[in-house]
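Weekly puzzle thread! Below is a chain. First person to post its structure in token form gets bragging rights.
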Amino acid sequence: MPPRKTKAPAALPDYAFETEDGAPSRLVCGVDEAGRGPLAGPVVAAAVILDIANCPDGLNDSKKLDAARRVALLAELEACAEIGIGIASVEEIDEINILQATLLAMTRAVAALPRAPHVALIDGNRCPRGLACASRAIVRGDGLVLSIAAASIAAKVTRDRMMTALAETHPGYGFENHMGYGTPAHLDALSRLGPTPIHRRSFAPIRKMLSPALPKGLDLVPDESVNLLIQKNY
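Winning reply:
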């Protein structure tokens, strides 16, 4: 019987992109976000400058790590990396749309770093306007670029903690479990309890609940934002 073929392990993100932009002699940060797709809660971005000589093992796209591993890695990162967090509120999401709110949160995250970077590596296919440094977008960067992977962990853990806290002030919705995503349990709670102030009124399921007379299928989230959500597998 021939030996069974095994899949080669997927490669982890590395430091090659940062090196291309002059790291470590130049300050290069990775930037990623968490929370573009949920029906409730803010969108949170993180910017991370790594010390490559003192970097935790196992950094990866946060979606490929379980919750306990993400928390442990963030604790290690907080001890050895520079981290900036940026948040765009539900009100801002509804006012300027989720794409622009995401870019705004990213800009705030870079501005919140202890030291201004020379270059920002942005997860996705576009860079925020108005950054005080050079930038470049890297599609699926959270699985390719070490500092973006670190940022994805920081953003995800930070947002999960925020949603867990919001679950205490808005009981019955299960925010501590689904983090605001449109799971069956969340949609069931919405049908029973109605939207809260932290639900995104520009997202179709909430908008339709508040204004049932609107034409069927109307979604106020722009197509470009939906395409980004699909690209990110949200």
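Puzzle host: Confirmed. Bonus trivia for everyone else. The first strand starts at residue 28 and ends at 34.
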